[in-house]
């Protein structure tokens, strides 16, 4: 056991979590904060959601919440989970459980009162810690030692933990990337390799969530390399993985002080052409926005190499700031270790140094020149915009009039340009 200082866990004594603990630590029942919040507090890193475990069964949790005027939502009632909402802040409360029959994710569970048994059915030692309102950290599986060593280990037999849910293979590497300071735990790594065929049983949605989290973890480069060495990337990505460009993308993000972006990193890792982007969008069930971003990055990224700033401005105008930057960074990541980073980084900062003007000619300018509304109007606008870009974005009225007149003349003289 260990004692956590109040400053490291202010949520134990104030706020929504403290109210939930007070509500459930009464009448012979006990409640503690479990899992990630405890782990992160001990590592002195920001915490996300705070989960509470309790000996009280779900019906009792709901009854107590109702008596206290607290809203309860049965978010996972079959598995013993009720979400209590206090001051618009949700706190997930789960009754202690024990397996009665074990067959993967569909294991039958019964509610219990055994904190040791509940801890032992979790995935990794660092996720099985719990803390009560007295600040005492309870450790039944060696999690405190692994926190101190910055090590991620499965609880008990790694093969058994993985067989319960093959997603734990990806979670093992994600948690290693986020929290470890050394090599991947060998026993866990070998068990993941031996069970890699189980990855094919996972849904695309679950793969997506874990992979996108893994890609933005601090230690993603080493973790992804370990997965590649163990033959674990191909079952997930369904294609070639490019470790060099992946590392180069992360280095470029850091040099430009950009927030880590999972889709940008996924492109560096696995997209050489747009067909790769389409495969990944299906394989990982990416959102529409994610799929479009990935596809844009993969579209002729090689054309952005060796651009002068005039050409770069036209690309920026066409693509928009975000798509321009991401495609450029993919080209930079694939340029190789010998590429001089200076010109690439200069081009990457173009959106901060220059804003593309809006195309100043309007449909009315061409209608006034005798172009009828319809397809011809769209064609002449396209011709004029191309000419405007080639002329380096002029805004002078005389120059714009010449561009408009020339575009109309081309439409009138070239039957191939007419609808």
Q: What is the strand and helix layout of this fold?
A:
Layout: E1 2-3, H1 15-24, E2 31-34, H2 36-43, E3 51-54, H3 58-67, E4 71-76, E5 81-86, E6 89-95, E7 97-101, E8 108-111, H4 115-120, E9 130-131, E10 136-138, H5 143-149, H6 158-164, H7 167-179, H8 186-194, H9 204-215, H10 220-229, H11 234-237, H12 243-255, H13 262-270, H14 274-283, H15 288-298, H16 309-319, H17 321-333, H18 341-348, H19 350-353, H20 363-367, H21 375-390, H22 397-413
Parallel strand pairs: 3-6
Antiparallel strand pairs: 1-10, 2-3, 2-9, 4-5, 5-6, 7-8, 9-10
Helix pairs in contact: 7-9, 7-10, 9-13, 12-13, 12-17, 13-15, 14-15, 15-17, 16-17, 17-18, 21-22
Q: What labels describe this entry?
A:
cca-adding enzyme, domain 2; 4 domains; 419 residues; alpha+beta; 51% helix
In short:
By secondary structure, this protein is an alpha+beta fold. It contains 22 helices and ten strands.
Strand arrangement, major sheet: 1-10-9-2-3-6-5-4
In whole angstroms, the N-to-C terminal distance is 79 Å
The CATH architecture term of the largest domain is 2-Layer Sandwich
CATH class of the largest domain: Alpha Beta
Strand content: 5-15%
């Amino acid at each position: 056991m260990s004692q956590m200082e109040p400053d490291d866990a202010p949520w134990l004594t104030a706020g929504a979590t403290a109210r939930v603990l007070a509500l459930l630590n009464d009448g012979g029942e006990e409640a503690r904060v479990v899992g990630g919040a405890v782990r992160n507090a001990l590592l002195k890193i920001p915490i996300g959601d705070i989960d509470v475990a309790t000996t009280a069964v779900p019906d009792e949790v709901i009854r107590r919440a109702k008596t206290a005027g607290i809203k309860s939502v049965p978010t996972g009632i079959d598995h013993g989970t009720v979400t209590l909402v206090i001051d618009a802040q949700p706190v997930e409360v789960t009754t202690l459980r024990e397996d009665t029959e074990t067959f993967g994710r569909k294991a039958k569970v019964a509610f219990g009162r055994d904190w040791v048994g509940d801890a032992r059915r979790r995935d990794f030692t660092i996720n099985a810690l719990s803390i009560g309102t007295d600040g005492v950290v309870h450790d039944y599986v060696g999690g405190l030692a692994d926190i101190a060593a910055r090590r991620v280990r499965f609880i008990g037999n790694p093969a058994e933990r993985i067989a319960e849910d093959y997603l734990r293979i990806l979670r093992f590497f994600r948690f290693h990337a986020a929290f470890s300071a050394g090599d991947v735990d060998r026993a866990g790594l070998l068990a993941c390799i031996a069970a890699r065929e189980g990855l094919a049983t996972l849904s695309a949605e679950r793969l997506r969530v874990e992979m996108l989290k893994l890609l933005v973890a601090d230690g993603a480069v080493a973790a992804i390399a370990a997965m590649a060495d163990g033959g674990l990337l191909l079952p997930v990505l369904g294609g070639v993985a490019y470790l060099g460009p992946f590392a180069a993308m992360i280095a470029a993000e850091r040099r430009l002080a950009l927030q880590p972006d999972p889709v940008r990193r996924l492109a560096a890792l696995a997209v050489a052409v747009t067909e790769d982007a389409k495969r990944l969008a299906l394989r990982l069930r990416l959102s529409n926005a994610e799929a479009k971003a990935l596809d844009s990055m993969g579209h002729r990224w090689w054309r952005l190499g060796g651009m002068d700033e005039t050409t770069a401005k036209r690309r920026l105008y066409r693509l928009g700031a975000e798509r321009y930057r991401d495609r450029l960074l993919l080209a930079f990541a694939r340029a190789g270790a010998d590429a001089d980073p200076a010109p690439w980084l200069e081009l990457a900062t173009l959106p901060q140094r220059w804003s593309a003007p809006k195309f100043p000619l309007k449909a009315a300018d061409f209608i006034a020149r005798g172009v009828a509304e319809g397809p011809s109007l769209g064609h002449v606008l396209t011709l004029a915009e191309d000419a405007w870009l080639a002329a380096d974005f002029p805004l002078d009225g005389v120059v714009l009039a010449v561009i408009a007149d020339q575009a109309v003349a081309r439409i009138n003289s070239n039957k191939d340009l007419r609808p």
